[in-house]
Design brief:
Blueprint: H1 18-43, E1 57-59, H2 66-76, H3 83-88, H4 91-94, E2 112-114, H5 121-136, H6 139-147, H7 152-165, H8 169-184, H9 192-199, H10 235-242, E3 251-256, E4 259-263, H11 266-283
Antiparallel strand pairs: 1-2, 3-4
Length: 286
């Protein structure tokens, strides 16, 4: 049958509704996005490389002595024993201040240090000394030490004693106050920690013979501060020295963990020491 435009069977031109036009447009855009994305995905590596591992680190705790730091550096860097100690024997290479007298004790700042490839013992120790200078060598620190009648180096010595003698931050401040009070009265400091430093040991027990050793660190026999710090103190210990609490304390003893007793009365102190000795005897430590 010939085609007639008016025939009910004649093909009609398809007209899209607004919704239909939107669907077609969306389909076209989606097809185009896929066509672009697939080649790009093929260009990407299938296995992305893992992020490089973080370098190892070395933790130097507050209060460690230099000999402990040297040993830890040798272990961390897989160096022969004595390598770090030998590096420390060249103080000019470490950048120590003149007041240190060539001794790194007190200037190996306690912190966590990264150990990237190629780290040397000398470089690591120099970094510790530089960090100590950044923390303890500021004009504010020097001025605060002067206000306490100390040089910055002397403040570091007192901080090392407070770090060694105290278990808590509060007690560090009280120990520092005892040191200040004794120095002001021209009394010997009588600190066990300085004796143990001279003897190369760590203990809470001190004998009468210990107090008789011939050493500049024997603060029972000698007045004033020892010649160097007796460890590497942290910032809390230094803050305790620069800003100690008020108090008339001249004596203290840690009777038990968490129980350090400070007093200005010698008889009360003797009673506290007797209690400490009895505890040690019962524990088998005396």
């Amino acid at each position: 049958m010939p085609y007639r435009p008016s025939s009910p069977y004649a093909p009609r031109r398809r007209r899209f509704t607004r919704r239909g036009r939107l669907a077609v447009l969306t389909g076209v855009l989606l097809a185009l996005a896929v066509a672009i994305a697939v080649p790009l995905l093929l260009l990407l590596p299938r296995d992305r490389p893992a992020a490089p591992p973080a370098p190892p680190t070395l933790l130097v705790p507050e209060g460690w002595r230099s000999v402990q730091v040297y040993e830890a550096v040798d272990r961390a860097l897989a160096l022969p024993d004595g390598t770090a100690r030998k590096a420390a024997a060249a103080p000019a290479a470490l950048g120590l201040p003149a007041a240190a007298g060539g001794n790194p004790e007190g200037y190996l700042f306690p912190a966590t240090y990264p150990l990237p490839g190629g780290t040397t013992a000398e470089g690591l120790l120099r970094y510790m000394v530089r960090t100590a200078a950044d923390r303890f060598g500021t004009p504010a620190t020097v001025e605060a030490a002067r206000a306490q009648g100390l040089t910055a180096h002397q403040a570091l010595i007192v901080a090392s004693i407070a770090q060694a003698e105290a278990d808590t931050t509060d007690d560090m401040g009280k120990v520092a106050r005892v040191v200040h009070n004794r120095l002001a009265r021209d009394m010997p400091l009588q600190m066990d920690s300085t004796l143990h430093y001279a003897l190369g040991r760590s203990t809470v027990d001190t004998s009468l013979d210990d107090t008789r050793i011939d050493s500049p660190y024997n603060t029972y026999a000698r007045k004033g501060l020892p010649p160097t710090p007796i460890g590497n103190p942290g910032e809390e210990a230094m803050a305790a020295v620069l800003h100690p609490p008020s108090g008339d304390w001249l004596y203290f003893v840690t009777v038990a963990p968490g129980d350090t007793r400070f007093t200005a009365d010698y008889a009360a102190h003797q009673a506290n020491v007797a209690e400490f000795n009895e505890r040690r005897r019962q524990e088998g430590g005396a």
